[in-house]
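Crash report, auto-generated. Payload:
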Amino acid sequence: EPEVTQTPSHQVTQMGQEVILRCVPISNHLYFYWYRQILGQKVEFLVSFYNNEISEKSEIFDDQFSVERPDGSNFTLKIRSTKLEDSAMYFCASSEAGGNQPQHFGDGTRLSIL
Amino acid sequence: LAKTTQPISMDSYEGQEVNITCSHNNIATNDYITWYQQFPSQGPRFIIQGYKTKVTNEVASLFIPADRKSSTLSLPRVSLSDTAVYYCLVASNDYKLSFGAGTTVTVRA
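Recovered output after restart:
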């Protein structure tokens, strides 16, 4: 079964540094998403992306965050200047279509900010 | 977005059937009911989705009454590996999923 893959599985970064999290969505999917989950808390929506532009973003997704699909396969999340509170699991997801279509998640990148 | 309410936790034993009921009183006409499963340190995994009546796949069944204000996820003959958090979501023509706290199901030997 095709799956969403994320790299790295664990990223340790100094506060204030930039970090890029990478995702390879399922190949025929057109919609892409980022979520995060702080340890012990709910999975929170960050952003959705379709047709090379952001479809929707949450309040969490401020100017420090950006997303990009640099080529036909990768989907990246960049955090420009990391803060301690950015420490979390970051999940990428993709779906064939938007709306009610099930989203398929990767196993996440654990981001630890020191 | 329709708010969902589900039990915080449930305990079961291997081989039993587990039924998790979720209430979504404010569900809209276009909304579908979707269930995800999450193991520790993994991403949520889609289990099943339905609009009304009953849906069954190789993993679970989903029962939705006519008024659609609640739904029940049924896991037949659970094993230890079914220990996970189960999320009930109401998905509409929207791009984001709103996860609640989910139901932590613990299966014991």
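Post-recovery validation: Chain A touches chain B through 27 residues (CB under 8 Å).
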